[in-house]
Amino acid sequence: MKIGELAKRSGLSTHTIRYYERIGLLPYADRDQSGQRDYDASILSWIEFLDRLKATGMPIREMLRYEALRERGVGTEAERGALLEQHRERVRAHVAELQACLLVLDTKIAGYAGKEQRMKEYDATIPERRRKPAGTRQAGAR
Fold this sequence. Notes:
- There is one protein chain.
- β1 (about 30) and β2 form a beta hairpin.
- It is elongated, with a radius of gyration of 29 Å.
- The chain has helices spanning about 5-10, 15-25, 45-55, 60-70, 75-125; strands at about 30, 35-40.
- α4 packs antiparallel against α5 (about 75-125).
- The chain has five helices and two strands.
- The chain is an all-alpha fold.
């Protein structure tokens, strides 16, 4: 497939595909008779994996380390596994931090919802004689 189709199917820009190729995250593509890049569809699964690593915050230098180990083949499985396990722990810690942040947001939102309900109840219970007539201003207000 040509670079434009790969970009469309992978969600990466052609610029990013060329960049990943240049730094070694993607293998250099074969070239067709006219010299254009011609990618095998199997590269899509590798790009999807890279996209997941990127989405979870793995730095490019670690992705490159993983790719270098992958390129060396058999015998690097333990190192690759250890690299991914370390990253998984960082992701878990980040998820826990985000969950704590979400709890704070949920609590704050619930507080606003509760305040609105309290105000409705409070307004409903104020005796008419305590309410200010419409159009009156507070002392000192201008």
